[in-house]
């Protein structure tokens, strides 16, 4: 067995899991359905979930590090072109384009789809390219606006995640919703980081109209 490496906070190494052998010994074999549910294409059942999802998280990796970004639009905004291909319009954002920068260097991509009220999530791993084909972008026009590009994903693996995380978090339970006013506003965060150079109450006051004007 490969020996574990590293040091734990109490100065010993035996509490750290640094080998696959030890990791598998701790967790045991995967539950049967968790292996069976993974396939290499989008079948009819998985397609139904993807087309019902108004939100997905997009994870990428590149020379600058990892990135995970939210993507959202009306349900079905991620288009299933065929059983091996997904199309994701890149709507207007803040122009950081961290995910797109990563895809230029490393095509690997991972998607997590969430559907309000649904416990299961859909996970997809694959490879992606960035297309600015005029006809393709035109096909994703919304509110009179075209996406600047479309992420074309080739599916390698797709499977559903059971509802345990959603059940434990009570994510869709209205009783768990917090008052947004209990957390710092965007203006407060920006003002604190910039020592008042940007942000502040004016940023927050203008936010609703700014979002309305720039959402697409």
Helices and strands, in order, run as HHHEEEEHEEHEHHH
Strand order of the largest sheet: 2-1-5-6-7-4-3
> Helix count?
8
Q: Which spans of ≥5 residues are poorly predicted at pLDDT below 50? A: none
Biggest sheet character = 7 strands, antiparallel
Decide which structural class fits the backbone: alpha+beta
Give the averaged pLDDT, no decimals. 94
Q: Roughly how many Å apart are the termini?
A: 55 Å
| Morphology | globular
Helix content: 25-40%
How many strands in all?
7
Rg over CA atoms: 21 Å
Strand content: 25-35%
Give a verbal description of the structure.
The chain has 216 residues and is α+β, with helices and mostly antiparallel strands. The chain is 29% helix and 26% strand. The protein contains 8 helices and 7 strands; from the N terminus they run αααββββαββαβααα. The protein has helices at residues 20-27, 32-36, 44-52, 98-105, 134-138, 164-169, 186-193, 201-214, and strands at 55-62, 65-72, 79-82, 85-90, 108-114, 121-131, 149-161. It has a 7-stranded antiparallel sheet with strand order 2-1-5-6-7-4-3, covered by helices on one side. Strand 1 and strand 2 form a beta hairpin. It is globular and about 55 Å long. The termini are far apart.
Kindly list the characteristics that best describe this protein:
216 residues, alpha+beta, 8 helices, 29% helix
Q: Concise description?
A:
With 216 residues, the chain is an alpha+beta fold.
């Amino acid at each position: 067995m490969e020996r574990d490496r590293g040091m734990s906070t109490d100065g010993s190494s035996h509490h750290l899991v640094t080998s696959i052998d030890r990791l598998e010994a701790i967790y045991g074999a995967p539950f049967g359905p968790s292996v069976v549910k993974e396939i290499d294409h989008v079948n009819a059942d998985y397609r139904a979930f993807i087309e019902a999802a108004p939100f997905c998280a997009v994870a990428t990796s590149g020379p600058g590090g990892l990135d995970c970004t939210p993507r959202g639009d009306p349900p079905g905004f991620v288009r299933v072109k065929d059983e091996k291909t997904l199309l994701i319009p890149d709507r207007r954002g803040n122009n950081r384009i961290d995910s797109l920068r990563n895809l230029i260097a490393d095509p690997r991509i991972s998607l997590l789809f969430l559907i309000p009220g649904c416990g299961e999530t859909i996970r997809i791993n694959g490879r992606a390219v960035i297309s600015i084909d005029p006809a393709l972008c035109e096909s994703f026009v919304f509110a009179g606006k075209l996406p600047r590009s479309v992420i074309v994903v080739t599916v390698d693996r797709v499977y559903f995640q059971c509802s345990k995380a959603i059940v434990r978090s009570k994510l869709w339970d209205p009783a768990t919703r917090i008052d947004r006013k209990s957390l710092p506003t965007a203006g407060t965060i920006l003002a604190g980081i910039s020592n008042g150079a940007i942000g502040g109450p004016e940023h927050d006051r203008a936010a609703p109209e700014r979002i309305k004007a720039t959402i697409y």
